[in-house]
Amino acid sequence: MKRIIVFLLAATLSAAMAPAQQPEKISFKTRDGREFKDVSISSTTPESINVETDSGFERIAISNLPEDLQRRLNYDPAKAADYTKREAEIRAATAARKRDMAAREARFSEWVMELNKIRNNAGRSTDPDAGLAVKNAEEIYRSMRSIVDDMDARGVSDEMIRKTLHAALYKEVFVGMPASAARIALGAPRTANETTTAAGTSQQWVYGNSYLYIENGRVTAIQN
Question: What pLDDT is stored for residue 14 in this prediction?
């Protein structure tokens, strides 16, 4: 039994100490006349290969390889074309998503500028409540982002979202504005009166001598 264990340990150590298998080196000349000597293929796709040379990695279209190497790689022009098309579609979709994300973030530029201004002022202030002002501003900013996320999810137009962001930042309200954004703009109402009829429930928010009328989560009327 001990001999068997010793033999297995020796075999394991021998395998672990054996030199790693080196990738195969190949030499070829592409159809456009470029020569590659003693390079190894690091990765392949249906459309191309990546080879490792002394100066780094290089991508080469399989259609540009000699026929014997194409056969060795099982090159299929139809599959290569389909792969290229799919990759182009993925790249286009990724680029579109990045543009959309950039455009969405740009909508918050005014809010970010205002938030940074509050942060900078707090940094220069000796007022012990300056930090609280920053905390409140950051909380309002997060709430506004949540409101915009909800508007995006409901398919609200970008124009309406930008209008809502601008109004809420500058303490303004308008008919059609989400009630949650109006609350951010003006703060909590002094009084909220609720009326229920057969048509549904509506609210009257009282701000001193001004009134907002709310139905289905939107401002439906403003009375000053």
Answer: 57
